[in-house]
Amino acid sequence: MIVLRTTWKGVACAAALFSALIAGPALAQGSPGEGKTIRFVSSDSLGANYVQDQILIAGLEKLGYEVKLSTMNMSAILQAISQGDLDMTGDINWPQAQPAIEKVADAAELISDGTIIGGGINGYMIDKKTAEAHNITNVSQLKDPKIAALFDSDGDGKANLINCDPAWKCGDVVDFQVKEFGLSDTVRSIRAKYEPLIAEAFARADRGEPILLYTWSPSWIVYRLKPAKDVVWLPIPYDALPPGVNKPKTHEVPDVAGCAGGQNPCRMAVGPWNWRTLANKEFLAANPAVGKFVAQAKWPLNTWSEWEGALGKGAKTNADMKKIAGEWIAANQGEFDRWISAATK
């Protein structure tokens, strides 16, 4: 995980800029949050959801709330929100988190159906040059030792598949599918810190060497390695997920840019996903304006990709996230103000 680092000077400067950017017309309806505090929490895994969270926080402050932001791992977040020790989070990865959410459903409530318009995707990716040169259109082809050897970067004869962090649930999906699809003899799943592994993949791609990885979109990875141009998504042969992972109706996703061989729909490693907002039920009942505001907050896939691209270029601190959020608000002030206005009614 990436730890955010900042300075008081950086925060102060960013806060001043942020306040100026979000300063829109005064709302005649009043401030439903006046005199109230929201304990907002972000997950400890850096992504464009951090920019989303800063826009949500800006909106809540515009509604009159004082917002206190903390960061922790998802297990702790769910426990704290269900117990009423924290109020809300915007970082629920759905449906990955569905089994855990169901356990706290008596005390916590999902507010919106997702903040990415159309949702995101997860799957296996290889460089386009190798895919086209060897007609690779499905992950099951990695059972062929000759195909697998194309992605061998350490000399053991097996394909080196960049997997997720050891603590991430997506890594369990990949390890399960490697066994399920009969790839254990030809593919080695590499689970370590994801960011350094991806940096290595970028370097290999720059040298024109084959790459094989598991990733998702929107993300800073696909901002750097563009599907259909630099890389292709490699479909799975059939739907398969390990126990404990929510099973969607289908893994097939229509109109995926860069699906190998031009396949449509593209059978991804998991079905479509999204970021959803979770709040303590008692808190939400006492603050209906919060639910009304959050339910409107949605962004298209290309906006999320731009945010992820900024992260890939080095944006890492709280001040960076506030700056990106403030720039979006300034460019979309009318839409932002409409969300606020509707929430106050």
UniProtKB/TrEMBL annotation:
This is Glycine betaine/L-proline ABC transporter substrate-binding protein ProX. Pfam families: OpuAC (PF04069). SUPFAM superfamilies: Periplasmic binding protein-like II. The gene is proX. Coiled coil: none annotated. Keywords: Signal. Residues 37-330 form the ABC-type glycine betaine transport system substrate-binding domain. Gene3D superfamilies: Glycine betaine-binding periplasmic protein, domain 2, Periplasmic binding protein-like II. InterPro entries: ABC_Gly_betaine_transp_sub-bd. Residues 1-28 form the signal peptide.
